[in-house]
Design brief:
By secondary structure, the protein is of the alpha/beta class. The chain folds into two domains: 2-130 and 351-367 and 377-408, Rossmann fold; 137-324, RecF/RecN/SMC, N-terminal domain (Glutathione S-transferase Yfyf (Class Pi), Chain A, domain 2). It is 45% helix and 24% strand. It is built from 13 helices and 15 strands. The chain has helices at residues 36-48, 63-66, 122-125, 140-143, 146-160, 162-186, 192-232, 260-271, 275-296, 317-320, 323-345, 362-374, 390-395; strands spanning 2-11, 14-20, 24-29, 72-82, 87-101, 107-115, 118-120, 131-134, 239-244, 307-312, 315-316, 350-354, 377-382, 397-402, 405-408. Strands 2-1-4-5-6-7 form a six-stranded antiparallel beta sheet. Helix 5 crosses helix 6 and helix 7 crosses helix 11. It starts with a strand and ends in a 5-residue tail after the last strand. The relative contact order is 0.16. It binds adenosine-5'-diphosphate and magnesium ion (MG).
Length: 413
């Protein structure tokens, strides 16, 4: 799939941008703080309805626009997307109402999604444009907290699987209601019957999420392992992805990754089609934890506390891997993600690479640039285009980014 045209209004440092994008690789270059990353962020936002930096959405609206006296400021992102079968116009609006202040003193902020000019729910925007994003800070997926890894799972799966996305959204709602009720019960209020109802819903929705994640991680792991072994390390190193589903509460806190939950992950992998058994196991775990949950006022087992990890030659990459090994593993993961999306949808996702090419050694850079060259469309950023091979530069369309303006160039000087 490709984006043929992108329009931005009041998005980050782009007051107004109209940009035609060609197929194949586009290389955005220019000095620091000119808007290269912001452009990738805009595309990513249209694809996933999220900012990759997890910042507050209201920060995405152009600051200058916020200085005006207009009561309502609208940030707009529009992309014309083409696949082999169809054309779609995707739009996201970020609306800030300066005449409506919330209790916390902030202005009221809302988002609207449109497909072919018709309003849709935010989650129905997903899947119309699929992207795989490479950022320098991606290694935090290995070294950072579990919510980074859950976020990655959710965003990636939601681009492909609308049922997963709907299930996840329903799960989060029930979770919130159930947690509120647990807090009430702790105060001696609320009803036990309601708890039973919420628990049943949580079990049914949560079990579907566990099963889907187990299948996804198995497939992704297989492909990442193959790529890593064959193309990135010449058969030198083996990586594995290990799912640690919070289908049970763990007793030994320090080394839970190595003990119980890995075994549960294995069990899920082999039982992913057995809904009744997953539900029974999840329900039993919740039942066992009820007293603790009421005391803590929160649901302690369930996919909202899942984790997964990388192993390199059998050891945890988060604690034992060098920075270079961690980067390689992430590269294998992202390349596997591209292949997985291709296989699931028959279309290559749009690749977005922010300053990452410079990070890799020769072999990995070659593997990455091969994938980029073969993609239907890729947008890369670089402060210094000098590190690209001249062969790659001949293929790529160069564009100069300067202060929220983009200029298409013939050749890079
Ligand atoms: N909401 C916003 N409104 C206007 N400018 C913004 C906004 N958010 C970030 N910026 C500016 O965008 C610039 C950074 O753009 P970025 O795309 O990260 O640059 P780079 O070209 O280095 O990748 C900075 O100058 C920053 O101050
Ligand atoms: Mg940047």
């Amino acid at each position: 799939m490709i984006i043929t045209h992108l329009s931005l209004t009041n998005f980050r440092n782009y007051g107004r941008l109209e940009l035609d994008l060609p197929p194949g690789p586009t290389l955005l270059h220019g000095g620091n703080a000119q808007g290269k990353t912001n452009l990738l962020e805009a595309i990513y936002y249209l694809a996933t309805t999220r900012s990759p930096h997890a910042a507050a959405d209201s920060q995405l609206i152009n600051w200058d626009a916020q200085q005006t006296d207009e009561p309502i400021i609208v940030g707009r992102l529009v992309a014309q997307v083409e696949t082999e079968r169809e054309r779609r116009l995707l739009e996201m609006r970020l609306i800030q109402e300066k005449n409506r202040q919330l209790r916390n003193g902030r202005y009221s902020f809302r988002r609207e999604a449109l497909v072919d000019k018709r309003k849709v729910r935010l989650m129905d925007l997903l899947g119309n444009l699929r992207v795989v994003l490479f950022l320098p800070e991606d290694v935090q997926l290995i070294t950072g907290p579990p919510n980074n890894r859950r976020r990655y799972l959710n965003i990636t799966l939601c681009q492909i699987d609308s049922i997963y996305c709907r299930t996840l959204s329903a799960y989060n709602k029930v979770l919130e209601q159930r947690n509120a009720l647990l807090r009430q019960l702790a105060e001696g209020e609320g009803s036990r019957e309601m708890l039973t109802i919420f628990t049943e819903k949580l079990v049914s929705l949560g079990s579907q999420i566990f099963a889907r994640r187990a299948v996804f991680l198995t497939n992704l792991a297989r492909e990442a392992q193959r790529l890593h072994y064959e193309e990135l390390t010449n058969g030198g190193e083996t990586i594995r992805l290990q799912y640690a589903p919070r289908l049970e509460e763990v007793t030994t806190k320090q080394n839970w990754q190595t003990t119980d939950l890995t075994a549960v992950g294995e069990w899920l992998r082999t039982h992913h089609e057995d809904t009744a058994q997953i539900e029974a196991r999840f329900a039993a775990a919740l039942e066992q934890m009820t007293a603790t949950e009421i005391a803590r006022g929160m649901t302690v087992v369930g996919p909202h506390r899942d984790d997964w990890s990388f192993l390199l030659n059998g050891r945890f990459l988060s604690s034992f891997g060098s920075r270079g090994q961690q980067r390689s593993a992430i590269l294998a993961l992202k390349l596997a993600e591209i292949n997985w999306m291709k296989q699931q949808t028959g279309e290559t996702p749009v690749l977005l690479l922010d300053e990452v090419v410079a990070e890799f050694d020769e072999q990995r850079r070659t593997a990455l640039l091969n994938t980029v060259s073969q993609a239907t469309q890729a947008v890369l950023t670089a402060t210094d285009p000098g590190m690209f091979t001249s062969k790659f530069l001949r293929q790529a369309t160069p564009m100069l980014v300067a202060d929220g303006q983009i200029q298409v160039e013939q050749v890079i000087a």
